[in-house]
Amino acid sequence: MSRDNDNPKNLTPADSAELLGYHLGIADDETRARVEAAFPDAASLSDARAKVERVLSPLNSEVAPPLPADLARRIVERAGSDRSGLRLHPVAMTETDDAPLRRPLFTLGELAGLAAAIALFIGIFLPGYRIAREGATRQACMSNMRQIGLAYVSYEQDHGGYLPFLGTAPPNTVWLPVTPNSGRQVYSNSRQSFALIRHRYVRPEAFICPGRPGDIALQGDSFEHLHNFPEPRNNSYSPNFAQAPLRRSAIVPVFPILSDMTPLADPGGLVGGRVRQENSISHGGRGQNILRVDMSIIFSRTPRAGVAGDDIFRILNVEEYTGVERPRSPTDAFMIP
């Protein structure tokens, strides 16, 4: 795979196929390495993936349009009308002295086959493509969470059985990512999980979900001078809002500790203090991957995937949010970056 001056127009068909496979999360390790090496930095690769996403966006509809039962017949009738401009004959014309040999553009049999092909494409390929693509993205996201889970285990073993904890949120701080004119300091909960990168338990690339094409991995090899992700787009996941040090062996095994980005953190996630979207938008709003204390990873189509059906994106019995709210019990998971 080769590129000149990072210009997409210089991509060959083979290059484009490799980039597409990389973006969909179905490329093998050798191809992934070749694609990443072809770009000067992660930002350039992210821009290329964003362009691929825009090209593929028309194929991402929830369902394919229903097909008329008589689609093939209607195509044949339409093509056979005078307005179609097509010459339809059961057999080709023969050469005479008055007219040269002419073959119709389509025979009835060929047109019926074309109609069947169109029906097959609309009815099978598009839904199949969407399902395959979503599955590949979820699997790539799960693979990232698996790496983060292993990092949690290593951190726990090196720190007396405790998960990363850098102190609770001060009383006057808010967890809302953007709080204009609030007069309060914003508290970032993602510094808890950033400790895994800072202490070299996991690479920054693991914190990027392929379902969020605008996110790019933090660059560099030394992070000791940082205490958090420099930019929101360097992190695609939400850790649990911890208010005290958590000893992993003392927590309910199914308690969530990391999830796809909460809808509260995205623009428009809160409208009038209420959560606008049910699920994370990382996987098209159809669900979220969740890493639990026992290091299992699930894909849940609802945010009510915590202990005893707890909503992981909302605090128990709280409907409206200003950013100062805190979890109300040890099992009340609240995923926020």
* Uncertain stretches of 5 or more adjacent residues: 2-9, 82-96
Q: Helical percent range?
A: 25-40%
Number of strands: 6
Strand order of the largest sheet: 1-2-5-6
* SS-derived structural category: alpha+beta
The 3D shape can be described as globular
Cα end-to-end separation = 36 Å
Task: State the helix count.
Answer: 6
Instruction: Give a quick account of the main beta sheet: strands, pairing sense, barrel closure.
Output: 4 strands, antiparallel
- What portion of the residues fall into strands of 2 or more residues? 5-15%
The average pLDDT is 79
Q: Secondary-structure element sequence?
A: HHHHHHEEEEEE
Rg (C-alpha, Å): 27 Å
Give a description of the structure.
With 337 residues, the protein is of the alpha+beta class. Among the domains are: 8-60, no CATH class; 163-309, no CATH class. The protein is 31% helix and 6% strand. It is built from six helices and six strands, in the order H-H-H-H-H-H-E-E-E-E-E-E. It has helices spanning 13-24, 29-37, 42-56, 71-80, 108-158, 191-198; strands spanning 237-239, 256-260, 270-271, 274-275, 288-292, 297-300. The strands form two sheets. The chain has a four-stranded antiparallel beta sheet, covered by helices on one side. It has a two-stranded antiparallel sheet with strand order 3-4. Helix 4 packs across helix 5. The longest helix is centred in the middle third of the chain and has 51 residues, at 108-158.
List keywords for this structure.
single chain, 337 residues, alpha+beta, 4-stranded antiparallel β-sheet, two-stranded antiparallel sheet, 6 helices, 6 strands, 31% helix, disordered N terminus
